[in-house]
Design brief:
mainly alpha; 83% helix; 442 residues
Length: 442
């Protein structure tokens, strides 16, 4: 399947649920209240964040299965996949236990939940903890499908799961009332169904089940040689994307979180555009860098230009039209609080979206250590800036801190991609990830 077709499938898989969310979010806000909806967005973020307990195995499976295929070593793929999925499952259980143990202090002190919601939030968080291993295994299975560039299957599943993310809470409210416990229970049931739904196309690509395949230390080391550094990025980078809302809850209270999370969630959904491109770009670059660096460079430059051209006008419209759009959608009172935040975050949206391309290129070259080091350095700047901004300027200060951080991230990634990826000979950044000989060249 062509890169263009893969991008279109990625857009459909991420974009259509966004339309459903736009239709259902006002219903949820009206029926469960601003504070409860803010907590629901935090639970969405927690499930996504704790799925990173796969320790980068999902992304490593994409990179290394793609390389094994282009090198003609498809017979080694089943053992690689089984090792990765078992590890992702075990780490997911560990992540779920960690979240379960943190439920009481998180609800009581970390989120500053009002007394009326406390019991409901505690139950909802406990159910969310049980969904963590389902999320980590799904990430691994999706990584395999992306390595085979089966973006049709990936995005059909993502489409249904994305619709369920908004649709099931609305259905739960209709049937059981404004209970976060029932909402999260419905979401967990969907996660269980989607593990099975991801496994079926993976099994088809492998041509067999994994019952007779032995998971080995060599395969796990092969994955973790890439995934260990990926984990650092996967932990710190999403933390810098989602930590602001938890810090806001801790500093200003859960009652104001929705004025930040609603525009933040909407703007982050716009990142489906560069995400659709780089989701397809990553396995393609991983293959091209092992065989044709000139072609990889051309694809990279075209992708960088396309991301900038698409996101610049969108960012401008969101910056200057924030109050008008929010007033139409959620009312003028909500817009008065959220519009300044939206305008600041819209500029960060441009920086963050363009950065997807050099980030994909650096990691496709096997340089996960570099992106991890960059994210660690950025965290030392971002979190103090976030706290100072919140105390000095409230929600607008948090938005400025995030925008400044993603701007710095873009500049650093562009420099690394230029100097360390596209000046290398073909395959130079990939050799350490493969225990066997360098892939054959056509």
């Amino acid at each position: 399947m062509s890169l263009r077709s893969n991008v279109l499938w990625n857009l459909a898989g991420a974009g259509l649920p966004l339309l459903v969310g736009a239709a259902l979010i006002p219903y949820l806000v009206r029926n469960i209240g601003v504070e409860a909806f803010g907590i629901l967005t935090l639970i969405w973020a927690l499930i996504g964040y704790f799925s990173l307990f796969d320790l980068g195995v999902g992304r490593a499976l994409t990179q290394q299965v793609a390389q094994q295929r282009v090198a003609g070593r498809s017979n080694e793929v089943p053992a690689l996949v089984k090792s990765g999925l078992l590890f992702a499952g075990v780490m997911g259980v560990l992540g779920g236990v960690v979240l379960a143990l943190a439920v009481e202090p998180l609800a009581a002190r970390g989120l500053k939940v009002s007394p009326a919601l406390h019991a409901d939030v505690v139950q909802a968080l406990r159910i969310a903890a049980a969904a963590v291993p389902l999320a980590t295994v799904t990430v691994g299975l999706r990584g395999v499908l992306e390595a085979y560039e089966d973006f049709r299957a990936v995005n059909l599943l993502r489409l249904v799961l994305g619709i369920a993310t908004f649709g099931l809470p609305a259905l739960s409210v209709m049937l059981f009332g404004p209970s976060l416990t029932w909402i999260v229970a419905a979401l967990m049931g969907a996660r269980l169904v989607f593990v099975v739904a991801h496994w079926l196309p993976v099994r088809r690509h492998l041509g067999r089940g994994l019952g007779g395949v032995r998971a080995g230390r060599r395969e796990l080391r092969q994955l973790l040689s890439f995934g260990a550094w990926m984990t650092v990025s996967n932990v710190i980078s999403p933390l810098m994307v989602t930590a602001d809302r938890f810090v806001i809850s801790g500093v200003l209270g859960a009652a104001v979180v929705a004025y930040y999370t609603v525009p933040s969630e909407v703007l982050l959904r716009v990142l489906i555009l560069p995400g659709a491109l780089t989701g397809a770009l990553f396995p393609r670059l991983a293959s091209l860098m092992a065989t044709d660096m000139a072609a990889a460079t051309r694809v990279y430059r075209r992708s960088l230009l396309l991301s900038a051209v698409v996101l610049l006008p969108i960012s401008g419209v969101l910056t200057f039209g924030a109050h008008w759009g929010l007033s139409l959608w959620l009312g003028e009172a909500f817009a008065d609080r959220a519009a300044p935040v939206t305008s600041l975050l819209a500029l960060g949206l441009l920086f963050n979206g363009v950065a997807f391309v050099p980030f994909a290129a650096v990691q496709a070259a096997g340089l996960a250590r570099v992106t991890a080091q960059l994210h660690v350095a950025e965290a030392f700047v971002y979190f103090p800036l976030l706290i100072v901004g919140l105390h000095a300027f409230g929600l607008a200060g948090a938005a400025f801190a995030w925008t400044a951080r993603v701007g710095i991230d873009l500049v650093l990634l562009l420099v690394v991609a230029h100097r360390s990826v596209f000046r290398r000979p073909p395959g130079a950044g990939l050799r350490h990830n493969l225990p066997t000989s360098e892939p054959e060249r056509p």
